[in-house]
Amino acid sequence: MTNTLTMLEIDRVAKRYGDSLAVADVSFTISKGEFIALMGPSGCGKTTTLRMIAGLDEPTGGEIRLWGRRLNEDAPWKRNAPLVWQNYALFPFLSVRKNIEFGLKQRGMPIRQRREKAFEWMERLGIAAYADRGIDQLSGGQRQRVALARALALEPEMLLLDEPLSALDPHLRVRMQSELVRLHRDLGITFVCVTHSHSEAFAMANRVVLMNEGQVQQIGTPREIHRRAANRFVAEFVGGNNLLSGTAVDAGNGLMRVDGPFGSTLARAPTDRVLQTGAEVTLVIAADCIDMLPARSGTGNEIEARVLTLEFIGSAVTVFLETLGGAELRIQRPLHEIENSPLSPLSPGQTVIARWSEDEGYFLPA
Amino acid sequence: MAFWAIPPILWQFAFFVVPLGFLVAMTFWSVRSFRLTPDMTLANWMFILKAGFFRSAYIYTFKLALLTALIASLSAFPAAYTLAFRLQPRTRRFLIFMLVVPFFTSYPVRIYSTQIFFSPEGIINAMIAPLGLGPVSVLDTPTGTVVGYLVLTLPLVLLLQTFALMNTPRDLIEAAHNLGCGRFRTILTVIVPTARVGLVLAATFAFVLSFGDYVAPLYLGGSNPPTLSILIADQVKSGNNWPRASVVAVTMILTLIVVMTAMLALAYGGRKKGRG
Amino acid sequence: MNAHHLRRGALFLWTALLLAFIFAPIVSTIIFSFNADRFPSLPWAGFSVRWYEAVFADATILRGLINSLIVAGATAIVASFLGFAAAYVDYRYRFLGKVVYTALIALPPAVPVVILGIAMLTFEGRLGLSGTLTGVAVGHIVLAVPFAMALVRMRLADLDPDIERAAWNLGATPWAAVSGVVIPFCLPAILASIFLTAAVSFDEFMIAWFVSGVNETLPVRVLAMLQGQVSPKINAIGAIVFVVSMSLVVIAQVLIGNRADRSSKRT
């Protein structure tokens, strides 16, 4: 991504509604052709940020620039940044075709040309059969496609999506997810997608902007965010992380020992700052980085723990363990691995050894 | 925004607020040698408020409107109850639609028709004569006026009461029955209090409409004694004394403001306490 | 059980009597408009359309009918435009004093028409509008705007505010969004309001009585005829007015009804 052009700059943007600050000082840039996810819990300011890009809300501070040009005061109808709305916001009194033609008509495209263009997009999204239907005769998934076609028919350089999948049932959601990814790849335009779901964001986006309480918490690839959370909020929000609180003790060789109710573990000391011996720290270990063994192997961190419960989510299993010191550990493993493990059948009350290497854990800033 | 916001308010301001303001201003004007002259005199107010004919007309109109509100409310209630609770939804929908019809049939024609009904040789007398009753003569009496007011107000009162009762939660009524509350007591202790706002609203409308009506007191009441609206019309059309007519009109508006405020208090008063 | 049946019977009887009281004047108007006898009473004197012929032969009545139609048409168009504008402002914008704004627009029907009439007469007299059909229409519009506003506002309650923004987002200017999205969405309500306000104006007699002067509308003519002796022509006029107004209201009702059907399907 280093040699791509910076397309959109969100520069110290803020949005205040009366006394409350929906967005406080948010900055990030978007390059041409990226698939950016704005992610965070509800009320974090992600949707407001998207609406400011679309011009539906005007920033009360900072600047939004497109190709270096200030965009703040441009009216929404002058920006070519079509939005796929959470509830689709399709025109209820217009047919599918007329919905898709709407934007083209506003641009003054002659009727035959926009018919053709609308037809192309309906074909492409598999809704040509419904061209003359009313919106109220469509299913949720079909409406979603109409909303997409209506926005894409404008052939924008940037498509905005506000929780595009939230109104779909889980089965459709997964299909639509991969379809969006394919569309993004085929069209080569920039997608900016708001979502509260980290699985959606991680599955689709090249880069994720994680927000909370009006502020950016972390910007990075899904992998970076998953493997190196910038702070406690991120580590907890993306899920699947064990956060262990303990006291740091220097162990030499760039390693740090952390003592806590889980016992004593080793991790690499952070390179960006110095941890004093005796400091209170939080150590993060991703749940899918922990192995379970029947007996100690003598390598890495090994902690004896008792199985509390097991949760089966599709082909993955989450195992909740309690260490002898009373700390809780969560482990995520593929189902087949659990089934084929010497520990099988795994059941509550069983004692196992939880193991992870020194490289897997990392420290959060205090 | 201005394109949409200004025309309606400008229209209502220019042709509603200003004329009413003008009406108020005119109560202080004087008529000199048959010509309306801007002035700041209280003479019109003094004249009207002191005039015996005004006072008796005021009391008469108020009394009759109040009586109408009462009769309309009480007589409509059993019918509203039947419509809301005792009829099939289809029948109810049909009747509700039918009750809208009177609003769009010429009221003067309905009054004319009523006049014929009650005339000495009219249908009512023709019907009761074989029973050895009558002849009744309500025309040109206060009773006639009230009958006319009822022609005007009953459809609205019945509609509003029906809507109010339909909104009473059914489970509340069932709960009352379940707790051993008899039908009649349920009406008094559950249905009337919960539908209070609508019932009071209906009575208020009945009062307001009757208080301002001109047709019924003229054609059924024989304008004898005159009501306030007849006073206004007389002052304007024959007497040509607009300032005095304006005084009557303004006292009517003030009366209605007081009545509506009182009724609103009656409708909503003590509500929050009841809920807490 | 017996007492229960009795009570039930009494309730139905009372309801029937009340409905009879409400509808008898309307029904008898229509029936007696076809009665051959001069005086509308029993026994029935035979079917006849002579009163209708008399009505259509009466130039003052015809003039009144035409005047009424002109006023109703003008009222319907202006009041529906103003009502739409007021409803849209209420739907779309938030501003200081909005309650006062909407209340002021909605208030006229709460004022007795006698008072509206005299206020109009005195005020319009100054403007030289009294005695003209324009003057009558001006008063009727004041009275009708709240009805138009209410109809359109109810419709707008079903319009997701995002829909208009979606139109902007697709490049529609605020004008294009209103004409391309908001008005088409409100069209059934706007048409309903045109018919309903026409009916309101067509039946209004008090403001018209004060203001119309020599340009009598039909209801004003009826009022004048009421003052004279019994005339079966009034029944014929009443029946004609009934048919005209009810057609307008039924059309309005059908337009609103379609909306209700469609929105219920949507859920």
UniProtKB/TrEMBL annotation, chain A:
<dbReference type="GO" id="GO:0043190">
    <property type="term" value="C:ATP-binding cassette (ABC) transporter complex"/>
</dbReference>
<protein>
    <submittedName>
        <fullName>Spermidine/putrescine transport system ATP-binding protein</fullName>
    </submittedName>
</protein>
<keyword id="KW-0547">Nucleotide-binding</keyword>
<dbReference type="InterPro" id="IPR017871">
    <property type="entry name" value="ABC_transporter-like_CS"/>
</dbReference>
<dbReference type="GO" id="GO:0015697">
    <property type="term" value="P:quaternary ammonium group transport"/>
</dbReference>
<dbReference type="InterPro" id="IPR050093">
    <property type="entry name" value="ABC_SmlMolc_Importer"/>
</dbReference>
<dbReference type="Pfam" id="PF08402">
    <property type="entry name" value="TOBE_2"/>
</dbReference>
<dbReference type="InterPro" id="IPR003593">
    <property type="entry name" value="AAA+_ATPase"/>
</dbReference>
<dbReference type="Pfam" id="PF00005">
    <property type="entry name" value="ABC_tran"/>
</dbReference>
<dbReference type="InterPro" id="IPR003439">
    <property type="entry name" value="ABC_transporter-like_ATP-bd"/>
</dbReference>
<dbReference type="InterPro" id="IPR013611">
    <property type="entry name" value="Transp-assoc_OB_typ2"/>
</dbReference>
<dbReference type="GO" id="GO:0016887">
    <property type="term" value="F:ATP hydrolysis activity"/>
</dbReference>
<keyword id="KW-0813">Transport</keyword>
<dbReference type="InterPro" id="IPR008995">
    <property type="entry name" value="Mo/tungstate-bd_C_term_dom"/>
</dbReference>
<dbReference type="InterPro" id="IPR027417">
    <property type="entry name" value="P-loop_NTPase"/>
</dbReference>
Automatic annotation (TrEMBL), chain B:
<keyword id="KW-0472">Membrane</keyword>
<keyword id="KW-1003">Cell membrane</keyword>
<keyword id="KW-0812">Transmembrane</keyword>
<dbReference type="GO" id="GO:0005886">
    <property type="term" value="C:plasma membrane"/>
</dbReference>
<dbReference type="GO" id="GO:0055085">
    <property type="term" value="P:transmembrane transport"/>
</dbReference>
<dbReference type="InterPro" id="IPR000515">
    <property type="entry name" value="MetI-like"/>
</dbReference>
<feature type="transmembrane region" description="Helical">
    <location>
        <begin position="247"/>
        <end position="268"/>
    </location>
</feature>
<feature type="transmembrane region" description="Helical">
    <location>
        <begin position="187"/>
        <end position="211"/>
    </location>
</feature>
<feature type="transmembrane region" description="Helical">
    <location>
        <begin position="146"/>
        <end position="166"/>
    </location>
</feature>
<keyword id="KW-1133">Transmembrane helix</keyword>
<comment type="similarity">
    <text>Belongs to the binding-protein-dependent transport system permease family. CysTW subfamily.</text>
</comment>
<dbReference type="InterPro" id="IPR035906">
    <property type="entry name" value="MetI-like_sf"/>
</dbReference>
<feature type="domain" description="ABC transmembrane type-1">
    <location>
        <begin position="58"/>
        <end position="265"/>
    </location>
</feature>
<keyword id="KW-0813">Transport</keyword>
<feature type="transmembrane region" description="Helical">
    <location>
        <begin position="94"/>
        <end position="112"/>
    </location>
</feature>
From TrEMBL, chain C:
<comment type="similarity">
    <text>Belongs to the binding-protein-dependent transport system permease family. CysTW subfamily.</text>
</comment>
<feature type="transmembrane region" description="Helical">
    <location>
        <begin position="236"/>
        <end position="256"/>
    </location>
</feature>
<feature type="transmembrane region" description="Helical">
    <location>
        <begin position="65"/>
        <end position="87"/>
    </location>
</feature>
<dbReference type="GO" id="GO:0005886">
    <property type="term" value="C:plasma membrane"/>
</dbReference>
<protein>
    <submittedName>
        <fullName>Spermidine/putrescine transport system permease protein</fullName>
    </submittedName>
</protein>
<keyword id="KW-0472">Membrane</keyword>
<feature type="transmembrane region" description="Helical">
    <location>
        <begin position="12"/>
        <end position="34"/>
    </location>
</feature>
<dbReference type="Pfam" id="PF00528">
    <property type="entry name" value="BPD_transp_1"/>
</dbReference>
<keyword id="KW-1133">Transmembrane helix</keyword>
<dbReference type="InterPro" id="IPR035906">
    <property type="entry name" value="MetI-like_sf"/>
</dbReference>
<feature type="transmembrane region" description="Helical">
    <location>
        <begin position="129"/>
        <end position="152"/>
    </location>
</feature>
<dbReference type="GO" id="GO:0055085">
    <property type="term" value="P:transmembrane transport"/>
</dbReference>
<feature type="transmembrane region" description="Helical">
    <location>
        <begin position="173"/>
        <end position="200"/>
    </location>
</feature>
<feature type="transmembrane region" description="Helical">
    <location>
        <begin position="99"/>
        <end position="123"/>
    </location>
</feature>
<dbReference type="InterPro" id="IPR051789">
    <property type="entry name" value="Bact_Polyamine_Transport"/>
</dbReference>
